[in-house]
Amino acid sequence: MARPPQFDRSEVLEKATQLFWERGYRGVSISDLVKATGLLPGSLYASFGNKEGMFLACLEHYSAQADGLRAEFESAESPLAIVRNFYFAMSEQSAASDERRGCFLVNASLECDESETAIKTQVKSCLKRSEAWLQDQLDAARRVGELREDTDTEQLAGCLMGSVFGLRVMSRAQDEGAKIQSVAAASFDSLVSPWQQVAA
Description:
By secondary structure, the protein is mostly helical. It is built from nine helices and no strands. The chain is elongated and about 60 Å long. The model has no long low-confidence stretch (mean pLDDT 87).
């Protein structure tokens, strides 16, 4: 009977994620992964199958970490405050000088083409999870009267997530963190404020 791999899976995935995030999927080889993670090639193939398998595991690892971060915002005093705090935390992260790598999920989506079906599917699943969480908070804000009853929370969640992704892309090309934060503030206000107004 084969023995289970003797390594810390979370630690290995974190190291591999950082490598993929820095160099991109196509910029990383199996030998790079072996060096970064400390795994022997046999252990890597046995546990993840191949480079694509490890990349898929890294996408899920990154998404699970994001789930944990989102949960931390849920202690805010109101549903709309949760949304606001999350959005501006993401914008501040995008503007930070040490976070100019963009979003790992968005980078993967832009780099990989339609022939890489498994990766595309995984990315879409992770992004949908984020958007669904955001819509849940907006639904709660509508129920308690922070948003109008006719608020299209599905559309608003999609627009807010699209704005966050845009800020992540900006962070890779824009040197001025203040500009990213200014765009974030204007974007959030223009998207959310109309749904806070009392309908005539």
